[in-house]
Amino acid sequence: MIHKQYIFKNAEETARAIAELIKGKANYYKSESRLLNIALSGGSTPKQLFQLLADEYENQIPWAAVRFFWVDERCVEPTDAESNYGVAYDTLFQKSFIPAENIFRMKGEDVPTEEAKRYAKLLYDELPVWNQFPVFDLMLLGIGDDGHTASIFPYNIELLNSELSVEVSQHPLSRQKRITLTGKTICNAEQIIFMAVGENKSKILKEIINKEAVAEKYPASYIKNRVGEVEFYMDILAAKDI
Ligand code: 6PG
Q1: Which residues pair with 132 in a beta bridge?
Q2: What distance, in Å, lies between the first and last C-alpha atoms of the chain?
Q3: E-strand spans in 71-182?
């Protein structure tokens, strides 16, 4: 497993580095007449990235060449404050410069088992397939302080090896139902980036990046792409104990 680490002075510079990466990839893919398929996570960390893209990247990214999918979703209405799509919509996707047909949200409001099936079929219809699983170009992941990523938690870590690309999950504390990509689809991505900022991430990042024994129970510890690489984009607070 190759952990590539990129450390920035603060959360904004971390978000900007990922925005610049998306800009570079999108322009390259456009020059190759290819579509850049990105899977987005929810939670609080991506908000700054979405805001930055909305405020500063309208004319820098060929948005028609970029398609957005989700890593996971909470089983709530899209207008609910807990909705991952809702947060992304309010900060970025309501902007008219992003083609609506390029946005493939998980429908958290629908029956979870049905939506997991629908979304899995959509991925096989829309994305290239390698080794029987869909292939994203860029997977943007977050990490919880319990070592979860997407909605794969320590208690249901077996979702890392599921033969289904999308499954129903549940938050261990809130019991909130979730829809999530599973391990073989996540790890099938060309490029995988964990975005983590703030001091509250420092302990979990130290344990995972230093490959401490306790990290064996963390789903995030097993995430790597097809060539065994995973990238960590962190601010100095999150990286302080590595
Ligand atoms: C979700 C996410 C989840 C998130 C982590 C980190 O729906 O909650 O996709 O996996 O990335 O919980 O969340 P924060 O960015 O809020 O710390």
Answers
A1: none
A2: 16
A3: 72-74, 129-130, 133-134, 138-141, 166-170, 177-181
Structure tokens given for 164: 């289904």
Closest approach atom of ligand 1 to CA 71? 9
C-alpha 96 – ligand 1 centre gap (Å): 26
Of 40, 72, 160, 201, which is best to mutate to test ligand 1, by the most ligand atoms within 8 angstroms of its C-beta?
A: 72
Q: List the beta bridge partners of residue 234.
A: 7, 196
Q: What percent of the chain has pLDDT over 90?
A: 98
Residue 3 has pLDDT above 90, yes or no: yes
Query: Helix H segments across the chain?
Result: 11-31, 47-56, 84-88, 112-126, 183-186, 202-209
Burial class (CB in 10 A: 0-12, 13-18, 19+), 62: middle
Computed over every residue of the chain, the mean pLDDT equals 97
pLDDT digits (tens, 9 = 90+) for 134-174: 999 999 999 999 999 999 999 999 999 999 999 999 999 99
Q: Quote the CA–CA distance of 192 and 99 in Å, as a whole number.
A: 24
Is the CB of residue 165 less than 8 Å from the CB of residue 135?
A: no
Structure confidence at residue 1 (pLDDT): 84
What residues does 66 pair with on adjacent strands? 36
Quickly state the pLDDT bin for 53 (edges 50, 70, 90).
very high
| C-alpha distance from residue 116 to each of 103, 107, 157, 170 (Å) | 17, 9, 18, 13
Distance (Å) from CA 241 to ligand 1 centroid: 21
